[in-house]
């Protein structure tokens, strides 16, 4: 059984990880649309969508050129969706799992196209590991998932249930 200090640490770390991953996805998408500034300014990777599409082509050099615009759209849509869902904490387990898969694919394409140092320096493998670890969390405090769980539990208790959704209440046997 986990002691109280470790349980509190697990709560804080899962919330922190959820926000860090979600905000990082949204920040990368914001960069693609110039919201962090124009290319050439400090800490701006792309500055516009065309530069992002060119970077997508560089990483995915092994794919037909005609597929690159669609891949850029799909990755942008996935990162936007995953970012919002992680920040809100909605469907967190599956979102974290899919995020881990997406980030792992990104890390592998970076490795093939740019060498292993690039994804290591950008902590891409760490982010993938964090997302996959988040997918194994038992609880998601401060999330919409938690609100839904509590509402279901309250409804179950109000109907005379045990409040434990996994173990239905069984009436006592004869005397």
Overview of this protein structure:
This protein has 175 residues and is mainly α. It has one domain (11-144). 66% of the residues lie in helices and 0% in strands. It contains seven helices and no strands. The chain has helices at 4-32, 49-59, 68-88, 92-114, 117-121, 124-134, 144-158. The model has no long low-confidence stretch (mean pLDDT 91).
Summarize the structure.
The protein is mainly α and 175 residues long. It is 66% helix and 0% strand.
Give the topology.
Layout: H1 4-32, H2 49-59, H3 68-88, H4 92-114, H5 117-121, H6 124-134, H7 144-158
Helix pairs in contact: 1-3, 1-6, 2-3, 3-4, 4-6
Search tags:
mainly alpha, 66% helix
Mean pLDDT: 91
Q: Number of DSSP strands?
A: 0
Number of domains: 1
Poorly predicted parts: none
> Structural class given helices, strands, pairing?
mainly alpha
In this structure, how is the largest beta sheet organized? none
Give the termini distance in whole angstroms: 34 Å
Strand fraction equals under 5%
Q: Which value, in Å, is the CA radius of gyration?
A: 21 Å
Q: Helical region count?
A: 7
- Helix content bin: 55-70%
- Helix and strand sequence: HHHHHHH
What is the overall shape? elongated
């Amino acid at each position: 059984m986990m002691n109280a200090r470790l349980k509190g640490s697990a709560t804080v770390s899962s919330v922190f990880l959820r926000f860090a991953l979600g905000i990082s996805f949204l920040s990368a998408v914001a960069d693609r649309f110039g919201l962090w500034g124009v290319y050439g300014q400090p800490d701006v990777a792309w500055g516009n969508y065309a530069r992002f599409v060119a970077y997508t082509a560089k990483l995915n050099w092994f794919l037909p050129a005609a597929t690159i615009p669609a891949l850029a759209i799909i990755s942008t849509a996935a990162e936007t969706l995953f970012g919002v869902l992680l920040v809100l904490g909605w469907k967190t387990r599956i979102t974290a799992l899919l995020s881990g898969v997406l980030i792992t694919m990104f890390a592998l394409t970076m490795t093939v196209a740019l060498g292993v140092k690039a994804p290591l320096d950008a902590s891409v493998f760490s982010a993938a590991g964090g997302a996959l670890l988040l997918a194994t969390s038992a609880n998601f405090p401060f999330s919409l998932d938690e609100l839904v769980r509590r509402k279901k539990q309250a409804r179950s208790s109000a109907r005379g249930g045990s409040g434990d959704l996994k173990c239905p209440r069984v009436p006592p046997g004869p005397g």
